[in-house]
Design brief:
By secondary structure, the chain is α+β, with helices and mostly antiparallel strands. The protein contains six helices and six strands, in the order H-E-E-E-H-E-E-H-E-H-H-H.
Length: 170
């Protein structure tokens, strides 16, 4: 095995997603599809996307909360002040292995995905504490999730408990 093959094997191992690495704030790149609620303008059914894990239920084998990371603000932010305020900036210098450019976490919508699908992706570490707290603040205060959604949604209730934990004990 030459040096290049050793380096590739090392990175593959480092980036392999395991259940232990699936924690709040984990940075993952995986294939996301219409099954997770995404809509693609170009007719595609799936594409590689970067995401931040907001909540995981390892017993039920589901990531019940993730937000997408995009190089540009959500298109919805161009015509909606609520969606504009739900964009959280991540600096490329803080995540050089994960981001090529400064990018935005779209906190305007929450998604869920089976853990098995995340396990097929790549792991790139975790958010800094300050970025994680910032994202939870945006999720907690966004107007894009109605009070009814916040009250009725099992997904949001689980995420809200986590948000309150970080606000209190961060």
């Amino acid at each position: 095995m030459d040096l290049r093959e050793l380096q590739k094997a090392y990175l593959d191992n480092l980036r392999q997603v395991t259940e232990e690495k699936l924690e709040i704030g984990s940075l993952i790149r995986t294939i996301i599809s219409v099954d997770e609620g995404l809509v693609f303008k170009d007719g595609r059914k799936q594409k590689p996307k970067k995401l931040v894990i907001i909540g995981v239920d390892k017993l039920k084998k589901v990531c019940y909360g993730f937000v997408l990371v995009n190089t540009k603000k959500s298109p919805k932010s161009a015509y909606s002040a609520s969606f504009l305020s739900a964009q959280y900036l991540l600096h490329q210098t803080d995540y050089p292995e994960f981001l090529k450019y400064d990018s935005y976490v779209d906190c305007g919508m929450l998604f869920s995905i089976p853990l098995e699908k995340l396990m097929e992706g790549e792991y790139f570490g975790s958010l800094t504490d300050s970025d994680l707290q910032g994202i939870f603040y945006v999720l907690n205060t966004t107007e894009t999730l109605t009070n009814k959604e916040k009250r009725d949604s099992v997904l949001f209730n689980k995420v809200f408990v986590i948000m309150m934990y970080y606000e209190r004990w961060g």
